[in-house]
């Protein structure tokens, strides 16, 4: 799925072996979390979607800040609630780890992603920076 994500958005993509090794290394850490959507039916595709989150210290809280590093849903499954389910589960998981905020960086021109996060309670914290990126934050 990572290859599809990167090629969909015209980003460089590692080889499958490199991606598997890197994900394995990341997921072995205590400060990295993956939320994976599984198919609802036995004949459904196995690759549905995932979120990759990191937890990091911040001087603004005694608890870690959660950052959504990646969220990917297969294009043919978008608009069916998979992303909403992954975000909901991700929020549950980071609250269980005592995070008080979740941060997401979104390309300013990705209006679909911006609307998606806003529907799920995130607010644009940097609307006037002119940087081309938007920083969305949600209090937990």
UniProtKB/TrEMBL annotation:
<dbReference type="InterPro" id="IPR000182">
    <property type="entry name" value="GNAT_dom"/>
</dbReference>
<dbReference type="InterPro" id="IPR050832">
    <property type="entry name" value="Bact_Acetyltransf"/>
</dbReference>
<dbReference type="Pfam" id="PF00583">
    <property type="entry name" value="Acetyltransf_1"/>
</dbReference>
<keyword id="KW-0012">Acyltransferase</keyword>
<keyword id="KW-0808">Transferase</keyword>
<dbReference type="GO" id="GO:0016747">
    <property type="term" value="F:acyltransferase activity, transferring groups other than amino-acyl groups"/>
</dbReference>
<feature type="domain" description="N-acetyltransferase">
    <location>
        <begin position="1"/>
        <end position="138"/>
    </location>
</feature>
<protein>
    <submittedName>
        <fullName>GNAT family N-acetyltransferase</fullName>
    </submittedName>
</protein>
<dbReference type="InterPro" id="IPR016181">
    <property type="entry name" value="Acyl_CoA_acyltransferase"/>
</dbReference>
